[in-house]
Structure formats: structure tokens, C-alpha cells
Amino acid sequence: MSFQLRREEILDASGLAAMLEESPARAAQAILLAAGEGEVEAQALLGQILLDGRGIAQDPPLALRWFGIAAGREHLMARNMLGRCHEQGWGCVADASVAASHYRIAAESGLDWAMYNLANLLATGRGVAVDQRQALALYRRAAEAGHAKSMNLLGRYLEEGQFCPQDRATARDWYRRSAEGGDFRGQFSHAAVLADAGHVEEALGWLRKALVGGNVNFLRVASESLMNAQHPQFRELADAYRLRLSELVAL
């Protein structure tokens, strides 16, 4: 495959993302060129591949710089990623209060991921004062915008009646929407609802989906929950969760 790219290909941000799937190294060259040409989507994408080390040497401090350049040009996801870098200490000293300020800017401009990230800080009091009601409002806004992770958390607030009237029927609907949206925690929550209603086979299907997408922390907690489940099929599935957990920990 030729590495020669037409100018219009270099400046086609949507094409760059697709190219990353086909050839990360080739895509990285194109992204570098497009970022240098001033293409803001490419600048944000360059920050991401530098952060991930995808097709290019991993360099979190340089990723932070490119996120800053794109954020300065009002790229909302780059602004959100500046927040993530400051929250996690990627390329800088971790500072949740700085992260919150970046999330807030992007959230106020309508970015669902920023709403979710800011809500997480507000719910736990990291970098900001604890404000569960504001966190709930942000989760609700993000969920209504189609953010699957926020759908699951909104469902949790509604199921437990935390800082809002208890509404288990609506909570179950949000769990279902979260599961269908691809969130592994939403898939686990939806499976629990289905199991309680006696739909064991359907619940098992969602639990298997959650197994594939789940991260280390989720798999650790979920496997313990499944070990104590009423249905023997769920207890058997706990072994698969523990196996997947051990694989991820070993990476």
C-alpha cells in the first residue's frame, strides 16, 4: 500500500479515523501532516494517538500539548481530554480541580462525555465539593443525549431513590437503554433486572456481553457478585469472569 496521500485525504478528519483501523502507522503520518496544516480534528486525534501510542511513540506530555492546541480552538472532545489528562496525571501532575474546570467548559457547551466526567467528580468530591444533586442533573442530561454510561448511573439513582423520587420502572428502562448502548455496567444492571423477572437465558446473554467489554475493576466486583447468585448458571459464569480478569491483570 502506498504511503502517498493527496492533500484532501490529509485534511479529511473522518478519513483519518477510518485509516487508524486499517494501518495505524500510515494513519499517524497522515494525522501529523493534517495537524501541522491546522486541521483541528487531526490535532485532537494526534493528541489521542500520542496518548495511546497508536501508530506512533507514546508521549503523554506531547499529547497534552496537542489537546491544548485543539481545545484552544474550541474542540470540545480535546477540552474533555485535557480534563482526563489532568485527572489521571497523563503528561502532567494529577489535579482534579484543574480537570473539573476543563470538564465544566465542555459540559456547558453540550458534550455528553464532559457532563459524565464532571458528574463523577461531583459525586465523589474529587477536585470539587460533593454535590450529588448537580451530579445527578449532569448524568440525566448526558443520558438524555445518548450517553450509555450515564444512563446506567441515572438508573442507579432512580432505583435507589437517591436525591430524587424512587422510580424503579424508569430505572429499569434506563438500564435497558444503557445495555443496548454498549455499556458493560449497564449490561450487568439490565441482566440483574431480567434475572429477577425470571428471564434467565436473556440475562445470561447480557452478562456475556458485559464480560467481553468489562474492565479490571468491574470484572473483580462482578465476579464476586455472580459467585453468590441464586441461579447456578450465573455462578458458573463467575469462573469466566475471573479468567478474563486474570488475563487483563497479566497484560
Strand-and-helix sequence, N→C? HHHHHHHHHHHHHHH
The overall pLDDT, averaged over residues, is 93
Oligomer: single chain
Roughly how many Å apart are the termini?
31 Å
Count of DSSP strands: 0
List low-pLDDT spans. 1-7
Alpha-beta content class: mainly alpha
H/I helix tally: 15
Determine the strand fraction and express it as a percent band: under 5%
Basic shape: globular
What is the helix content? over 70%
Structural commentary:
The protein starts with 6 loop residues before the first helix and ends with a helix. With 251 residues, the chain is an all-alpha fold. The chain has helices at residues 7-10, 13-22, 24-36, 40-52, 60-72, 76-88, 96-108, 112-124, 132-144, 148-160, 168-180, 184-196, 200-213, 216-227, 232-250. Among the domains are: 1-73; 167-251. α5 packs antiparallel against α6 (76-88), α6 (76-88) runs antiparallel to α7 (96-108) and α13 runs parallel beside α15. 75% of the residues lie in helices and 0% in strands.
